[in-house]
Amino acid sequence: MNAPLPLIDATDRVAFVTGAAGGIGGACVAQLLAAGASVVATGRREVEIADHPKLLKLSLQVTDEAQVQAAIAMTKDRFGAIDYVIHMAGMVGKGRLDQMDLKDWHTVVDTNLTSAFLLLKHAYPLLRKPGGAVVLCGSSNGTNGGSYLSGAAYASSKAALNNLTRYCAKEWAPDGIRVNMISPGPVDTPMLDRLSSEQHTALKAGLPLGRYATADECAAATLFLCSSHAASMTGTNTNISSGLVLDR
Ligand SMILES: NC(=O)c1ccc[n+]([C@@H]2O[C@H](COP(=O)([O-])OP(=O)(O)OC[C@H]3O[C@@H](n4cnc5c(N)ncnc54)[C@H](OP(=O)(O)O)[C@@H]3O)[C@@H](O)[C@H]2O)c1
Fold this sequence. Notes:
Elements: E1 14-18, H1 23-34, E2 38-43, E3 55-59, H2 65-79, E4 84-87, H3 102-123, E5 133-137, H4 141-144, H5 152-172, E6 178-184, H6 197-205, H7 215-226, E7 237-240
Parallel strand pairs: 1-2, 1-4, 2-3, 4-5, 5-6, 6-7
Helix pairs in contact: 1-7, 2-3, 3-5
Bound molecules: NADP nicotinamide-adenine-dinucleotide phosphate.
Residues 19, 21-25, 43-45, 60-63, 88-91, 111, 137, 139, 184, 186-187, 189-192 line the site of NADP nicotinamide-adenine-dinucleotide phosphate (NAP).
């Protein structure tokens, strides 16, 4: 793979990234390092990104409040402050609502939504004021209702993230902290490995552009939202769905 082209100059900036062992989170880490940022790359499993002098890799289960607090404390020890919080950890559910267990509902909602609350709550004291930027990760499912392919808890939690974004955008604007969200449609990452080839064909056929987004495209939109190019953007939801979501 070619080295990513820097979209922004993030020298002297500190980014805290969740889901860094995953497709989009990993692409965010690579692009942030290329842009000169110091990066705290957190993952539930080991983050397989080559060591770098500006990279701190941490194990983090985003649903565990004590682990979130510990990761933020380690970030404070190492870097002193956070400029960008980039929350890409997430999981899908599956199946019809009438066949879904309460335990599975809670697992998906906790992973996608409650994790964002925990992260924002504990990162806030360390976020640079003014200048901090947060990017949460929604989904086209949060706008169009989703389907049994990802399940009701996924669609509901991603829709709720949209309003959490707007809530924090308003609450934190006086601090000079911006809060935005990206909402991808299907992205070519391990998250889609669960689908059969027939399901891939049907999914692509429903995309006006006829292609999945890439993790790099999602990361580039995320870096843009963090950057000074987006200094007047807060409470927004960037649609990266290959035309799947158009009428709102
Ligand atoms: N791919 C798509 O089609 C698509 C579409 C719309 C939105 N999104 C969103 O994009 C974000 C990134 O997903 P992706 O496409 O990059 O998929 P991915 O490669 O599966 O990455 C998701 C990452 O989240 C991590 N994660 C899940 N539960 C966690 C937990 N409790 N604590 C910490 N980390 C946890 C996973 O960890 P493990 O590696 O340990 O499993 C994985 O590394 C997600 O929020 C997803 O909902 C993806």
